[in-house]
Design goal:
The chain has a domain of 93 residues: Winged helix-like DNA-binding domain superfamily/Winged helix DNA-binding domain (Arc Repressor Mutant, subunit A, Orthogonal Bundle), CATH 1.10.10.10. The chain has five helices and five strands, in the order αβααβααβββ. The relative contact order is 0.16.
């Protein structure tokens, strides 16, 4: 990181002009430096906590992992509860009804998810020990 004291440059110009961020980026580019400027803000991503997932993976079937990813893709920032039907999980994963049921049983047994409510209006809570919705600060 390059640091300098503006007082060292006061003799060059006594008036300091303010430029907006776009002008500053353009000025930096004009002197031949690269500036990373993302096209969009990162959002809508899921954080996966590596240590807990590494411990869980050997104990988890591929289908259960697929269902976990499908459930995680439905996370909302301000909601801990995921409201999704089994047919929607089947559609997201390409798995059969029985396979999804077995995978959900496995995830609940391993305390990765908690099922809430009756079968007709079932919702899920995914443990934030393994995954969490990402958000830029």
């Amino acid at each position: 990181m390059l640091k300098f004291n503006i007082k060292n440059f006061e003799h060059l110009n006594h008036s300091v002009s303010i430029m907006n961020i776009s002008e500053a980026i353009e000025t930096v580019k004009q002197v031949g430096l690269n500036v990373y400027t993302p096209k969009t803000k990162d959002s809508g991503f899921v954080k996966v906590y590596l240590k807990p997932i590494r411990k869980l993976l050997p104990k988890l079937s591929g289908n259960a992992l697929k269902v976990l990813i499908a459930l995680s893709s439905e996370l909302e920032w301000d909601e801990v509860e995921i409201i999704i039907t089994r047919p929607e999980i089947e559609k997201l994963t390409g798995l059969t009804k029985d396979t999804v049921r077995i995978a959900l049983d496995e995830l609940e047994e391993k305390k990765v998810i908690t099922r809430l409510g009756p079968n007709v209006r079932r919702s899920y809570v995914v443990s934030n020990h393994y995954v969490r919705l990402g958000k830029n600060k």
